Amino acid sequence: MEARGDEMEARALPDVDFPDGIFPVEEALEIILLFDRMGKICYANGAARRKLKYADDMCGRHIGDVFPGTFRQAKDSAGIEDVTLDEMQNLVAYRSNTTCFPVEGRVIRSSKCPDMYICMAHDILEKEFLSREIERIREESQEAMKVKSEFVANVTHELRTPVNGILGNVREMLEWEMDGRTEKYLHLIERCCGDMNKIINNILDFSKLEAGKFNLEMRKFHFRNMIEYVKGTHTNRMNEKGLDFFVTVSPLIPESIIGDELRIVQILNNLLSNAQKFTAFGKITLEVFMTAQVNDRMELFFIVSDTGIGIDEADKDKLFQSFSQVDASISRKYGGTGLGLNICKQLVELMGGRIEVESEKNKGSHFSFSIWAGVCEGETGTIQKPDERRDLKVSSTPGVSPEGDDQENIRKFGTRENKENLKKILSKLILCVEMENWEKAEMFMETVRQLTEEAPREVKRVTLRMKMALQKENYDKVIAEYEELNSFL
Fold first, then answer.
1. How far apart are the first and last CA of the chain?
2. Is the entire prediction scored with pTM above 0.85?
């Protein structure tokens, strides 16, 4: 009878002193237990009974039965003074069959009855399991990335050996006396080997960057000598294609800076090569400014502009993605792996900067990027904004560059600018044909095709026939189509 009376007293307590809202939580998903300062449980909601595997009511049991590692099971105290109140903490809850599981919960004092406490906890067993699974998957992916990086590094090194072997032998053979046809094929093999080496280097750099094993080599170097080297690398190709090439460097930039010269050159070479590849006529410019200085670090700002095919606004996001081209026709027509700009982006970010692009279809592109470099002791620069160009040192290839409306008129068939450029390109094309340099002639033919895109149908037909004759290396047919095309001009 005494035990029965205690049970009825425990059941009656909630009606008198328990905080408002205790009974509506009967269907709550989290465990809710109410106990007094002695540790005796006065209320357990449905979730508590189900998760703790108690078939009968839990009232009258000690809170230490559920959380033995947190509460003492002494008769005169629950050890509540040793528990941090009002803070979320990780606990271990024991079921009636003595099995346990992790929970996240907190203990608070009742606002209406200071001698009563509420424990609210939710089961985190599934959360811990998923966390361990995520960690396991992360470790497996890291291991897979490591294996992939090692495999790519080994394969690229193995590929480089035979490619360099072929390249060395071809260059040795080019010193022999031979007929023009054989020499042409050897030069073609030499160029293919060079392209293959560039692809191999890009894949190797990409795998290192993805694996986080890419390190910059920061050292002092002469900045203007580096720019002159970059300019010299591209000037001949620009001239061969009939493009004007302008290099602009602020005289306010120090003579020597501290940075990774090789990687800066790599970024500039990639951007200038792309500009040359996608520009059939007009100009390409490289401009460099100093835009900020913080203590012994300075920000250098580079702009590479061209008057090429441009990019649609919707396609800009694809530019810096790995193995991505704006569209499939770009890869078929111009080649490339789609890694170059992605590598540039990661290199620029490693140097503390960012890369951006502004472009419009058929109106050219403007790539800009910034990097942070070290200032050498005893040398300081002057900060300059990109629009302050009056004191700049300019060097360029000879020629007159089209500006503004002239650039628009060049593409419109029949305008004075269009005819002048067509005649100039066609004269270079015929000169290449006379010298049997068919490869360079095809390059000029692509420019002719772009300059006649808006021409009448009969002009386009002549252009197409001329292109087919060039591909077949049919001299007589090329001359005939050239004379017919000239008649339209």
1. 119
2. no
